Amino acid sequence: MLKTFYQKDLIEAGCDEAGRGCLAGPVFAAAVILPVNFNHPLLNDSKKVSEKNRNELRLIIEKSALAFAVASIDNDEIDKINILKASFKAMHLALDKLKKKPQLLLIDGNRFYNYKKIPHRCIIKGDSIYTSIAAASILAKTYRDGFMLKLHKKFPQYSWDNNKGYGTVLHRNAIEEFGQCKYHRKSFKLKSIQADLF
């Protein structure tokens, strides 16, 4: 059972990203402010939720949230500033778009760049602990998946409808055969990525 809040006194926004480890496409991030008592039996870390349930949860989260926002950083900027900085920048952009100002940020992971003067807490595996982070993980994942499905129509040879840009065997083999396209992250070295996967 996910915890509905970290503390009771401040307005919390959960933040998470999707697509950090991909070979292609943007990194997406979401920020979500939920009602203190919000929970849902299907809600969890997006990686532990089926695609069907993620899409259902997205609608529920967007309807129930006090505020939510999604932002992305494209592959060209990822290559310029590196994926870690791009992930943080995407989170900052999502926070910029929130219609309600949070007083505490709950960040999935162990690092973050300060956002304005709002305090934050980095929580390892936070998307499987707190509802707001889990909700952010669902939004980031579903928005990114939708984006990659659109790109798949232009570049079907990479099977992005299935792998969403991650370094699957099929995707890596397609890169070997067809080379990289304009949406691939050129700073991600294919051989080193392959070594990480085995």
Description:
The protein is an alpha/beta fold and 198 residues long. The chain has a single domain, classed as Ribonuclease H-like superfamily/Ribonuclease H (Nucleotidyltransferase, domain 5), CATH 3.30.420. The protein is 41% helix and 15% strand. The chain has helices spanning 51-64, 75-81, 83-97, 131-154, 160-163, 169-178, 190-197, and strands spanning 12-18, 27-33, 67-73, 104-108, 120-123. It has a 5-stranded mixed beta sheet with strand order 3-2-1-4-5. A hairpin with an 8-residue loop joins β1 (12-18) and β2 (27-33). The model is unreliable at 192-198 (pLDDT under 50).
Approximately how much helix is present in the residues? 40-55%
Low-confidence stretches: 192-198
What topology, given as strand order, has the largest sheet? 3-2-1-4-5
Tally of strands: 5
Structural class: alpha/beta
**Rg (CA only):** 17 Å
- At the third CATH level, what is the topology name? Nucleotidyltransferase, domain 5
Span between N and C termini? 33 Å
The CATH architecture name reads: 2-Layer Sandwich
Top-tier CATH class: Alpha Beta
Number of helices: 7
How confident overall, as mean pLDDT? 94
